[in-house]
């Protein structure tokens, strides 16, 4: 995508990229304002899909549905697809938060209230605390003195970027409430040490060499980043290391039925057995029109 009002610029850019786009033309040329808005709109659209799924996950828990089955169902519709419809504990990083905020502000500057985008941002900020809310509910607001294992600190796999990462909300809250954290991330530990090295309660944030060391002696395991190595853990070893077989999964990595058979108490996002699920929950009102 190129934004330019100069035909000569378009000609030069096409010549530059032509060797790389011979099989199909991937160069889209438009005016500068449209290009700027397109960039913000693309990231805002993806952020909207994420917040929409997280909103649905909250509904799924309350009506006893499984958001993962809902995801598969709606994703099978070619008009929707499977990209960016994975529920979790919110988006982070440098692009989505910044671009959503920028688009909201740009709209305000020209006299438009971007109500939908404000909701996207609001849902995402709330979602970063969902795992902590579940943990608080489970332990009846008594987190002080407990040791909690945290798998994943980067905002997504394959990066050490912790900007706007949900893990930071988790870490800040747990430290603030007097818990000890045993944390592990395959690549983001150095960044986390930089961010929290001068924290008043840095001694309560212990960085571990691997996932199993992090689980040693913890009252519960929290999963904040969907690193590949977390997808198939040694369940028997994990169960022995934790003081109780309790897992709060912010990325829905595991099958609830399998976890139950293995003897874990498994609390995930929108899996129908969250803190709001209850017997006798009314079904959805269906309009067959």
Describe the protein.
This protein is α/β, with parallel strands linked by helices and 289 residues long. The chain has 2 domains: 2-126, N-(1-d-carboxylethyl)-l-norvaline Dehydrogenase, domain 2 (Orthogonal Bundle), CATH 1.10.1040; 128-267, NAD(P)-binding Rossmann-like Domain (Rossmann fold, 3-Layer(aba) Sandwich). Helix content is 43%, strand content 10%. The chain has 11 helices and 8 strands. The chain has helices spanning 7-17, 32-63, 67-75, 96-109, 115-127, 130-138, 166-176, 189-196, 211-215, 235-241, 256-261, and strands spanning 2-3, 29-30, 147-151, 180-184, 205-207, 220-223, 246-249, 265-267. Strands 5-4-3-6-7-8 form a 6-stranded parallel beta sheet. A two-stranded parallel ribbon has the order 1-2. Strand 1 (2-3), helix 1 and strand 2 (29-30) form a beta-alpha-beta unit. Mean pLDDT is 92; it is low at 274-280.
